[in-house]
Amino acid sequence: CLQECDPGYYGEGCTEICSDQCAGGNATCHHVTGSCDLGCLPGYHGDLCLHECDPGYYGEGCTEICSDQCAGGNATCHHVTGSCDLGCLPGYHGDLCLHECVAGQYGAMCSKSCSENCAGEDNSCDNVNGTCDQGCEPGYQTPCCDNKCDVGFYGTGCIKNCSEHCSGEDNSCHHVTGTCDLGCEPGYQGDLCADAILQEGKIEDSERNMFGPSLSFQTFIIILGCAVAVIAVVAVVASLYMFRLVLHFYFIICFWLEI
In the record, what terms sit under GO molecular function (predicted)? Predict the structure, then answer.
């Protein structure tokens, strides 16, 4: 009874086998107690290395903590490798769920792409929920910029109202430019139907009140110009006539004075 158990065995009669989870190539253990000579393999603990790491821990000596980004309420992971049992929380990827999604990706396992309507050169968005980092391109709604502006609105932030002169019951217009979908109501023109059309032979109310019900502004200007010209001519003719009349009386007076 003086001889120790052969390597790999321990206990009474050397009938107990050292744990397979003992570290080292030969899985050797103490010949009496069975405790592993070189400690446990990663993922196991206890005197005989028979127990897997407690939930939430993994690795050598069970000292590593499972990632906070592991899915599931308890963030559990494989006791040896640390890979998350239920995968990663949205916005993260990798074996240990330690890496955020690359730019342009988001969501569970980073499987979703940020909207192409996100503002900015790289269309970047939040790695978890897909909210565009720099807001939306004109014509699209936050948070993810996948939806066009509601009917009746357009532009950046969808805060501009379509023109009230757009044709159709809902005054709908293009979600980006504001161009009326069905054109303009009668009497209006322009890209946004904001310009009133002045019909031939008619003028605005303010001009009509000033110049009469049937007189166009252009006609009034012509008549006014002609009147001014006639008055000027009459004034010149009258001036010449008065000059000649005065000159005539002057000669008559001079003639009588000489006599």
Answer: scavenger receptor activity
Confidence check: pLDDT of 237 > 50: yes
The pLDDT mean for the chain works out to 86
pLDDT in tens, 128-137: 999 999 999 9
**What CA–CA distance (Å, rounded) separates 42 from 176?**
59
Query: Which of 24-38, 179-193, 214-228 comes out lowest in average pLDDT?
Result: 214-228
| Span 188-214, average pLDDT | 62
Domain boundaries, the chain: 101-146, 148-197, 204-230
Amino acid at 11: G
pLDDT in tens, 87-97: 999 999 999 99
